[in-house]
Each structure stands twice: as structure tokens, then as C-alpha cells.
Write a structure and sequence with these properties.
By secondary structure, the chain is α+β, with helices and mostly antiparallel strands. The protein folds into two domains: 273 residues, SGNH hydrolase (Rossmann fold, 3-Layer(aba) Sandwich); 99 residues, Immunoglobulin-like, CATH 2.60.40. It is 20% helix and 28% strand. Strands 2, 4, 5, 7, 8, 9, 10, 11, 12, 13 and 14 form an eleven-stranded mixed beta sheet that branches. Strands 15-16-21-20 form a four-stranded antiparallel beta sheet, with no helix packed on it. A hairpin with a 2-residue loop joins strand 7 and strand 8.
Length: 486
């Protein structure tokens, strides 16, 4: 027994990250938002092995022992929205640490450069910065870029913006997609619910870097040639895993551009497995909430426009982003929702076509889909028009029937591929309120929509929903049988 006690003490000394310091993990800061009911939020930190840590708040007291690795965790009972709540933590009855926090919804925003793009670089930036000051129920947290090659970090490396209410300076530097999404979700609650927004993004990064080794193993992912931040699981280790101790309401994701040229065929498996892995790993990610009992809503921005040209690999990636089902949610990612961006073409963007500045339209589309999926607001559509059927009506003429009434805005969007691999644009005419007839060559083997890297000029693609939301049609592909085989 004495030997076991000695070994435990030695292990604690070797493993403790705290070096005897009693403190919270660095993500727990004043002004933070903790996830509200029905999920249980967590407080966690470092202390000495063998000590006992207690927290008191609102007349409640909870105590826990410190683990052998020098860490501790207190799971709080589900708490209604509101605050601020004053937490007082102590070790063995002394060394008090205080925390002032709110209870509400926490959203995790991740991906590459379009998620990272700050408010100061978007359309009407001055106006948007001023508008952000009116959302004092929001709290912003921006994770400092950091990667870890070999192990999951216990804490993130630091913060570019610590937990803070919006100010002009902070709003200007924060992720536009994350902030605008938070504002639109806040509007649903009349701006009364505290909402925490965590921006954990890094330009030019692959989905493999944001995925745990579990995802890589499940998908049988080929060896990665990425380095530094693009190494397999490097950003999962450094910028996601340390935050999974906290409970969140859900996540939004803008990533995929870097995978157009890397492991594109694996993206369908990667995205659906990443969502499940995050859901299983974040604190109480599987606990249902809100009107539709959605436990871990996951919003996907489908890849937007890029430099002009006929690179059709972008379309395949857009479809892979839906786990090859064409729409979100679907049976493979049942709690996901989608926002299209491919028609927000911006050739004059100072940082390149790929960084379109109309982030407002993109987030309105995503937030409206979220309101349908999460809160049951069926007046908002989940996605744009989707073909119900496509069939030849004569040689070279294909009738495409959509699930809703459509509006024709432009000529660009349909392309077909021939047996020799070459591509051409396809002309079309509207047949009725829900259908178009598309002309293809007799040797066409594939008909696609929204597959080209730059599909159309700004909001001038072919097909939109004929309603107030005016949503662009979903990207899709249809393998063409020979006409005479029908």
C-alpha cells in the first residue's frame, strides 16, 4: 500500500501541468458564456493531487478531488439562461479564485480563411462594427493560432481576443462569419440570451488537421504530406481538443478550399466523421436541446467562388461537403444545416476572389437554415431548390424538375462533361414554375450544377427559389444514361 501511495504521488509530480498552482484552465475567464440548460457546463483547472476543490455560487456548493494528473473538473447542474453568476472556487477551503460568467448558448466557429476573415474586411465594415455594439449580450473569444503535432493540449496556447463583450476594436478583428451568425441567432431570442462565440480558425488549413486521429483511422485516410499546422490532427490537438471540456450549443464550419487539391475523394467521410467525433467529444455533445431536440447542430458553408476559370473539382468538393447527399441535413449528418456561398462572386476583393466580402448574405442563409433545423421555424427553408428528377424528353434535351418553384436569374450554372473528359456550358429554358429543359451534347455523360470554380457573377446564377428567401439551387450532378437506353 505504501508503495502504491508513493507511486501515485510520484506520478502526480511528473504529470501535473499546474506545478502546484491552483487555478482554472485558461479558457475560463471573466465575462465568458457557459452553456445553458439542458446541457451541463463544466469548470475545470489545475491543483495539487490529493487536494479538494470546491465551488460556491448562488447558494450552491460542489466539491471534487484533484486527479492524479493534477487536474480537476466540476460538472455544474443545468442552469437557465442569465447572469452574471459569481463563482468562487477554493482549494481545501482557501486560495479562492473568482469567476464571473453568464449562462446562454455557446457556438464554436472553425475552418480556414473565410471563417478567419475579420469584420474590417467585409462589405459595409464601418456599419457592421457599429451594429455589433448593439449586441452586448454577445461574448467573443478568439483562439490564438497554435498547433500540436504529437499530443492533445490540455489548454490552448493563448487568445487573440479573451472573453469580451463587443467593442469597436474587437468587433473589427473578429471573424465576420462567426459574429454575424451570432447576431442573427441572437435576433431569434430578441437579443436577450447570452451567446458566446468562439473563433478557432486558421487560413489555408485542411480538414485532416482539424480532425482527431479517430477520424483519420475510420476513413482510412492516406498519409498526409502536410507540415506544421496542416499535419494530421495538428489543429485538433492545439485548437479544438483543449476546448472540448466545455459544453457548446453547436458549431459552424467554413472549410474545404484547401481540400479541393488534397484528399477530395475522402472529404465525404471526413466531414461526417468529424461531426460525429466532435459531437461525441465535446462536453455533453449528445444532449438534445431546444424545440427540435437537436443535440449538436453543425452549420456548413458550402465552398464559395474562387478565381475565374473552369476548374470543376470545386463542384465535387461542394457535393462532398454534404456527405455526397446533396443537401443538409441528411441521414448521414442528421443535425447539420447548410448555407450556400458560390454565387457571392467578388472579383474586386482585395484579398482575392476566394475571399468574398458579402459575409452578411452567407450568414443570413446559414442562420435561417439553423432556425428551421434547431428551432422549428419552417417559414425558413433549409436549403435552395433541389432536383426531384432529371429525364430526357428528346435526344440531347433533359428536363430537370425541382422540389420548389424556381426563379431564373442568369444563364450560368449548368455544365456537362463528355466521355473524353471535356466540359461545356449547357443552355436551358424554363419549362414551367418548377422545371427547366437543359440542352446537352449527345455524347454527354454527366450533367452538373454549380460545379465550376467561379459559377456566375454576383447573385446571377441560373436557379434560385422563387420566394422571399431567394436561395441559390443546391450543387448537384446527374450521371446521364444513353437516351435510347431509357
Amino acid at each position: 500500500m505504501e508503495t502504491q501511495v508513493f507511486l501515485a504521488a510520484l506520478l502526480a509530480l511528473l504529470c501535473s501541468e499546474a506545478n502546484g498552482e491552483f487555478r482554472l484552465f485558461n479558457v475560463y475567464q471573466n465575462e465568458m458564456v457557459l452553456q445553458m440548460e439542458p446541457k451541463s457546463a463544466v469548470l475545470a483547472g489545475f491543483s495539487d493531487f490529493g487536494a479538494r476543490v470546491s465551488v460556491t455560487y448562488e447558494g450552491n456548493s460542489i466539491e471534487t478531488p484533484v486527479d492524479v494528473d493534477g487536474t480537476w473538473k466540476i460538472v455544474l447542474p443545468p442552469h437557465a439562461q442569465g447572469g452574471p453568476v459569481d463563482f468562487n472556487l477554493s482549494q481545501n477551503g482557501n486560495e479562492t479564485v473568482s469567476l464571473l460568467a453568464w449562462f446562454g448558448d455557446v457556438w464554436f466557429c472553425s475552418g480556414q480563411s473565410n471563417m478567419e476573415m475579420p469584420v474590417r474586411e467585409v462589405f459595409n465594415a464601418t456599419e457592421e462594427i457599429e451594429k455589433a455594439l448593439g449586441y452586448q449580450n454577445l461574448r467573443l473569444l478568439q483562439i490564438k493560432n497554435n498547433y500540436s503535432l504529437n499530443s492533445e493540449l490540455v489548454e490552448v496556447d493563448g487568445f487573440s481576443i479573451p472573453w469580451s463583450a463587443p467593442t469597436s476594436e474587437l468587433a473589427a478583428s473578429f471573424s465576420a462569419l462567426c459574429l454575424f451568425f451570432g447576431e442573427r441567432i441572437s435576433n431569434h431570442f430578441g437579443n436577450t440570451r447570452p451567446i458566446g462565440l468562439i473563433d478557432s480558425s486558421w487560413s489555408g488549413t485542411r480538414i485532416e488537421a482539424w480532425s482527431s486521429p479517430r477520424v483519420m483511422e475510420y476513413c482510412g485516410t492516406p498519409a498526409n504530406d502536410g507540415e506544421f499546422e496542416n499535419s494530421e490532427s495538428a489543429l485538433w490537438n492545439g485548437m479544438v481538443a483543449p476546448l472540448t471540456k466545455t459544453a457548446i450549443r453547436g458549431a459552424i464550419w467554413y472549410q474545404g478550399s484547401t481540400n479541393v487539391e488534397w484528399n477530395s475523394a475522402y472529404y465525404s467521410c471526413h466531414i461526417q466523421t468529424l461531426v460525429k467525433d466532435w459531437r461525441d467529444t465535446f462536453q455533453q455533445g449528445n444532449v438534445p436541446a431546444d424545440e427540435n431536440a437537436v443535440a449538436f447542430p453543425f452549420g456548413v458553408f458550402q465552398n464559395g467562388p474562387t478565381e475565374q476559370g473552369d476548374d470543376f473539382r470545386w463542384g465535387y468538393l461542394r457535393v462532398h461537403q454534404t456527405a455526397d447527399q446533396g443537401v443538409l441535413p441528411n441521414v448521414l449528418i442528421p443535425e447539420a444545416f447548410v448555407g450556400n456561398t458560390y454565387d457571392l462572386t467578388d472579383h474586386d476583393s482585395p484579398t482575392g476572389d476566394i475571399h468574398f466580402r458579402d459575409k452578411q448574405t452567407a450568414t443570413t442563409r446559414l442562420a435561417n437554415a439553423a432556425k428551421n433545423v434547431i428551432y422549428g421555424q419552417t417559414n425558413f427553408r433549409k436549403y435552395g431548390p433541389v432536383p426531384k428528377s432529371a429525364e430526357f424528353v428528346s435526344p440531347g434535351a433533359l428536363a430537370v424538375n425541382y422540389d420548389v418553384d424556381i426563379r431564373i436569374a442568369g444563364l450560368d450554372g449548368f455544365h456537362f462533361q463528355r466521355g473524353n473528359g471535356s466540359w461545356s456550358g449547357a443552355s436551358f429554358q424554363q419549362e414551367n414554375s418548377t422545371a427547366v429543359v437543359v440542352q446537352v451534347d449527345l455524347d454527354a455523360t454527366l450533367l452538373t450544377y454549380a460545379f465550376r470554380s467561379s459559377v456566375c457573377e454576383y447573385k446571377q446564377c441560373a436557379i434560385y427559389s422563387a420566394d422571399e428567401q431567394d436561395l441559390p439551387a443546391q450543387p448537384w450532378l446527374f450521371v446521364l444514361p444513353a437516351f435510347y437506353d431509357n
